[in-house]
Amino acid sequence: MNSIIATPTRAIVHRTYGSTHGPITRLMSPGDLGQLLKPFVFLDLFGFKPQGGQKGFGMHPHSGIATLTYMIEGGVEYEDTTGKTGVLPTEGVEWMRAGNGVWHDAKPVGDSSISGFQLWVALPASHENTPAESLYLAPSQIPQAGPARVLLGRYGAAQSAIAAPSDMNYLVVRLKDGERWRYTPPAGHNVAWLAVNAGRLAVGGPVNTGELAVFEESDQPIDFVAHGDTSFVLGSAVKHPHDLVMGRYSVHTSRAALAQGEAEIQRIGARLFHEGRLA
Question: In this structure, which CATH number among 3.40.50.2300, 2.60.120.10, 3.40.50.1460, 3.50.50.60 belongs to the domain 9-273?
């Protein structure tokens, strides 16, 4: 008997297409599904073709979190207040551990369409007010095992170059039409979700393009069958044990930590304004 059929798998307990505002679809935020899926607290699926005068995302701050941006299509010029600048190409990754506070920006390269996912990860108390660090990875620097590219954590023999702040995996998976795949999460990864950006999956039930699905909290594997060539991101983790204390651009574990992070954001922002880098 096929083991995929014989072994119980996780059920989907929630699904959403999120809310769309212009070129951004917000699939998860700290005030809704982030409470269920922490340390994963925020997920945007963005996509647009630059028009005249469109300058990108604009310089903006974060603290208390790490952001991971994965480019599905197109490239962006990046800049951050750790001093790094460059171009992030198609299938490249930006990892920004904001910690105590950072500002960053991304602008489309040329007039080609861009699309991607941006994920926020809540940092543990030991990391949330540490100095900001950033890492930019070319596609060749992202390891792969089977159909999965490992953005965070480890899958099979593939381990991300990014030091995850807690026990978590974040994968980009591509399956061909009719292809089957089983994901067996590491021990303790009772949080699990996926979001599809192309194609359609059967995962106990259908999950369509643009949809995010949340799995029940358990230690069971997850089985996938692709209907059409399909691409999706998948996250699993040990649950973040802290409250989510939110600011406008920040998520911390306490009011005191949030106040410290916001003070640093204001300090950096004042410098950027003095330098003429903020409107």
Answer: 2.60.120.10
